[in-house]
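Deliverable D4.2, example record:
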Amino acid sequence: MIESAAHGIVTCMNETTTLAKPTFDGTRVQPSESFALNVEPETKELYQYQLAAIETIIEHRRVILGMQPGMGKTAIMQAVAADAAARGEKSLVIVPPTLRLMWQREFETDYPELAVASVTVGAAGEFPEADVILMSDSLIGKRFDDIVEWMPNAVFVDEAHRMKSPDAKRTKALIAACDRMEDAIVVVATGTLANNHAGDVYSPLRATGSDNAKAVSYGDKWHNFLDVWCITEMAWKKRVVVGCEDPEGLRDKLVTTCMINIPRDEVLDLPARTFNQVDVMLHADDWAKYAVVQKHFLSWIEENFGEDAMFRAAKAEAITKLMRLWEIDGKVKVKATADYVENLTEQGEQVVLMAWHSSVMDGLRDELERRNLRVGMVRGGMHANSKDLAVRAFQSGALDVIIGQVAAAGVGLTLTRSCHIVFAQLPWNPAVFAQATDRIYRIGQERACTVHLLTFDEGVSQRLWNVLQFKAEIVDAINNGKPTIIDQTSVVNSVLNDYGWD
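Output generated by the structure prediction step:
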């Protein structure tokens, strides 16, 4: 248990009065002159903007921590939890299952006197005695009653964009639990609040409280948010978000209401980063395999487009076929990708290699190991301990290449031992792509970084990259206040249209 004096309270003549809450400013980069941490982390020195964020959280209590990836959101939340423990208060930290060990290790490193426990099972039961409890986000609904019974004084939700669906059980459980804990600090953290479109903002916003949702949307319901900020269409008797009325206006409203959002390049002197699209030369037999599949796909689109009665069913089938073509795009590039990665390692570089499909990852591992390279993997379904060991091995220099499955390795990991990240396959979501690239581009990186995007002429990857570059501007306007053009077409639809489906 950590003990220290509380701050933010004035005591006079045996009466305790809470200081007046200042106006919310989510872009401030300096703490007030009087602010000081009750407990300092043992192994790191926090930046001024991090201290400002900590002060804002303590003052305003219900906050979206919406900084870009790599800016130290975990360190900010852990400092607030340590501050709460110093005041005899307890915290609940809700994390993706694969990040629980990382959180526990960092608590042990920076706040060794803090009593930290983990809840890892879904069966109901009394929570252990601790200053901080770590719990996987998949357990929120199952352990709802136990959470409310334990009644934490602070709740931290890491990678909160995983709670974007307002209809999901865990989202509903999180909002209901936070509503029950009226006086608790609630921090929802994500580097990509708008993961795909403006509608993603609502659930994390609502988790910070009804008052914040009303301040942003003049009502705390899903339909209020849609009415004010989103362009929608009816599909299957439901409103579907297809665009944003005013991305920059939404971001401005959030940072004056409840979101801490400081552009990374204003406060961190990170080295340069370059995006390098490389058209690789496929081996002849690999190109022949791809050409056959793509020819069948194009013929199918030509035959089926325009049949009104069957259009919806045909569209679904078109997407399925496109996803298959995307996987084959990655598989036929395996040898060319291995050539490219091997060349980087021969220059003395370690490489982070990203792919999506397990079949592509397995092919890359086998091809690289045949070239006597030391290869590790981080993929979906791995035990958290195995993932942690792979990351540690890479960061220690024991691996030449770490192959990451974008969905599993694209968040929460620090891979700054490398300054090269190679995409054998691109994801379809611009925010997911941005998160993945930031595994090497974050606090602790001292070298100029290069993002290598391996495509080939006429491949899905080439078409997808052309679309992603434009779509990334849309979510960036909401997440980071960058000017943009509003576009209502999804990434998948845009690529299909490029093939002639329009």
